[in-house]
Design a protein that fits this description.
This protein has a 3-stranded mixed β-sheet with strand order 1-2-3. The chain contains 4 helices and 3 strands, in the order H-E-E-H-H-H-E. It has 85 residues and is α+β, with helices and mostly antiparallel strands.
Length: 85
C-alpha cells in the first residue's frame, strides 16, 4: 500500500505545486456501507499549497482530480480533499 500512496504522491507533486501532502486511508471506515467496493480505496488527501489555496476551491479540486484521473477510474472510490495555504 505504501508503494501505491507514493505513486499518488508523485503524481500530485508532478502536476501541482505542493508544500506538503498527507494521504490518509479511510477505507476501513466504509467497509459496511452498501456502496462499498472491495479493492477500491477511500482516501483523504490533506494538501498545503499556496497556489491551490489562492485559486477557487472548485478549480483546485479539478486540478487534483485531473492529476489522479486514471486512479479514480481504477483504484479510488472516494476522494476527500482538504487544502490549506
Amino acid at each position: 500500500m505504501k508503494d501505491y500512496f507514493k505513486k499518488i504522491e508523485n503524481k500530485l507533486k508532478e502536476h501541482l505545486n505542493l508544500e506538503e501532502l498527507i494521504i490518509v486511508d479511510n477505507t476501513h471506515l466504509h467497509v459496511k456501507h452498501k456502496s462499498f467496493v472491495p479493492g477500491k480505496l477511500h482516501l483523504h488527501v490533506k494538501i498545503k499549497s499556496q497556489y491551490l489555496g489562492s485559486i477557487s476551491k472548485i478549480s483546485a479540486q479539478r486540478l487534483i482530480m485531473k492529476a489522479l484521473d486514471e486512479d479514480l477510474k481504477t483504484s479510488i472510490h472516494a476522494l476527500e480533499i482538504s487544502i490549506n495555504k
